[in-house]
Amino acid sequence: MNHYTSKNFALTKSVGFLLNKARNLVVTEIDAAFKEVDITAQQMGVLFSMKSGMASTPFELSKLLSIDTGLMTRLLDKLEAKQLLERFRSVDDRRVVNLKLTAKGNAIADRIPEISPHVLNARLKNFTKEEFEELIRLLGKFIGDSE
């Protein structure tokens, strides 16, 4: 089913516009919340993905976070410069770069579950439990998440 046509399309009513605006609001609020630990929302995603064991290579992170490899390289460069992670070549396949959180990176990653919920809960304060669960379900369906 086509939900949009050339006759009914309006920028501020498009799913892309609304998703982008929602994303920008959350990123701005997450960035502000993590200012004290000197990381951004994108850097938080990398650190927490690694801490959670969801990714350990730049390729896995790029795929998980839907970030192109060029941006991922720049993100990793910044995190490495802040001494939050280390890169090293795989002993089995020198083409593969593995990532490891440093002690400092682990300490910041440990704080993520303490900080992030406050930001997200403030944004979701007017949602009922059922609306929240439906939002998660619909966003999962939108992105093609099979879970």
From TrEMBL:
SUPFAM superfamilies per the UniProt record, alphabetical: Winged helix' DNA-binding domain
Domain HTH marR-type: from-to ranges: 8-144
SMART domains (alphabetical): HTH_MARR
Alphabetized PROSITE patterns for the sequence: HTH_MARR_2 (PS50995)
Keyword Transcription on entry: yes
UniProt-listed Pfam families: MarR
Gene3D superfamilies: Winged helix-like DNA-binding domain superfamily/Winged helix DNA-binding domain
Keyword vocabulary terms for this entry: DNA-binding, Transcription, Transcription regulation
PANTHER family named in the record: TRANSCRIPTIONAL REGULATOR, MARR, TRANSCRIPTIONAL REPRESSOR OF EMRAB OPERON
Protein name, per record: MarR family transcriptional regulator
Organism whose genome encodes this protein: Dyella flava
